[in-house]
């Protein structure tokens, strides 16, 4: 993997799922450094198109919202709106909880939950979580007010009439690929229909689509120009520009 922007390796222990960020059952934590790298590539492509921030970021297969929350914590200075949707209503609830951590009141509520656990059980892990909450609060307090939307939607159908899905500068998602997480859509060709759906809400002038998937899934579609593709471990990701 060739990192162009998030070049420095560092510890991401404060972002560990289940520590302060909520852990949605049946989901996996997306690598923090990779998420940061991909969104920064999107920022760069948008700037090259003459689209300056702050940006609207949308994840149409958000799962528990872990990746979006990490990006919001790390890059709040370049984002003014984060939108999340998923077909699984249970995941939407977890995503809403995680996104709430991007606001001081939501993070303070979570810190109080962890404090109560520490007072009850006196576990070192809870003390470490309190320290991580303080670290994350430092990030949140520096951020401007983010507009947050989280709702249930099927990413393989036409959602272009829903204003919450439209006008995103960056559409970024980790597609379901079996094993732990799989498609629950009724579509016979969910990846193809996903691209069709995204094309209906994307703007050729001001949208970049970033898709992460298992290597077995082909990341191509005739309505999108593929700008970059990169393999990393069992995954690959590609960045696209919608065609008019």
From TrEMBL:
Pfam hit, one: AviRa
InterPro entries xref list: AviRa, SAM-dependent_MTases_sf
The protein, known as: rRNA methyltransferase
Domain of life: Bacteria
Gene3D superfamilies attached to this UniProt entry: Helix hairpin bin, Vaccinia Virus protein VP39
